[in-house]
């Protein structure tokens, strides 16, 4: 079922929740990233309501544009296996033997390295992009924080995930040679570039970003060295109950907030 275009951040949350529900029902691994992304969006919405951004209405538009990029890629893949290269690679591996954390990172790679910069440029075109810097960094910090909590949650359904630490493939925010921190900063520079370009120039830049993100996706999916045998061992011990895994990942931030509330005096 097509997700369509959201008009605001509430509709982005609802659209992502719908994808998660369908994935749980169908045992579809697309629900892994959708569960992560739903929680990011809920956290951003909370930050907007709490007044943490310089311009909450602008961030609602930003997050809506950002979410619609994912919905467009998801719908294109479901419709006829089309869409951006990096998203096609990510979705095309859903039935492969890649492990849970790879699915998450493939989605994060495509959404940060292709979609994030364009959403920012469309939110604040031209010279206005500079005023977005602080809020852009805050939304990216929220993204990184949720990514780390969800990765921690993966450990409960992927008992040998720590092997990635042993072979140096998961340290801090770096997983399978993909750095969330570095990619967030590169996305900002690309946003500034896109904000000042005309439509023809912008199309060429997006093509370049898509090609680069696809190359990274292939490296994430098929890493070399000691990482590959480690991933094979991990895959052999991971839960095959896809609906249960999705549900577990989708509750990562709720469990985090619940724990924090219980520890508060």
TrEMBL record:
Pfam families: DUF5995. It comes from the Bacteria. This is DUF5995 family protein. It comes from Streptomyces synnematoformans.
């Amino acid at each position: 079922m097509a997700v369509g275009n959201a008009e605001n951040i509430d509709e982005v949350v609802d659209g992502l929740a719908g994808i998660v529900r369908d994935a749980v029902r169908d045992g579809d691994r697309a629900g892994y990233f959708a569960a992560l992304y739903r929680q990011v969006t809920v956290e951003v919405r909370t930050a907007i309501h709490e007044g943490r951004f310089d311009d909450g209405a602008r961030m609602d538009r930003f997050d809506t544009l950002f979410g619609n990029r994912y919905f467009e890629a998801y719908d294109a893949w479901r419709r006829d296996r089309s869409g951006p290269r990096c998203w096609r690679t990510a979705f095309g591996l859903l039935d492969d033997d890649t492990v849970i954390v790879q699915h998450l990172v493939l989605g994060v790679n495509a959404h940060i390295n292709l979609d994030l910069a364009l959403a920012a440029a469309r939110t604040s075109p031209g010279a206005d992009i500079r005023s977005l810097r602080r809020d852009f960094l805050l939304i990216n910090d929220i993204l990184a924080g949720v990514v780390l909590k969800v990765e921690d949650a993966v450990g409960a359904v992927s008992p040998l995930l720590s092997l990635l630490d042993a072979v140096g493939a998961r340290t801090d925010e770096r997983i399978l040679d993909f750095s969330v921190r570095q990619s967030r900063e590169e996305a900002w520079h690309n946003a500034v570039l896109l904000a000042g370009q005309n439509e023809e120039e912008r199309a060429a830049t997006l093509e370049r970003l898509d090609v680069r993100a696809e190359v990274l996706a292939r490296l994430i999916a098929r890493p070399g060295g000691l990482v590959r045998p480690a991933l094979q061992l991990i895959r052999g011990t991971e839960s095959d109950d896809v609906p249960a895994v999705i549900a577990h990942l989708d509750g990562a931030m709720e469990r985090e907030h619940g724990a924090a509330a219980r520890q508060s005096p």
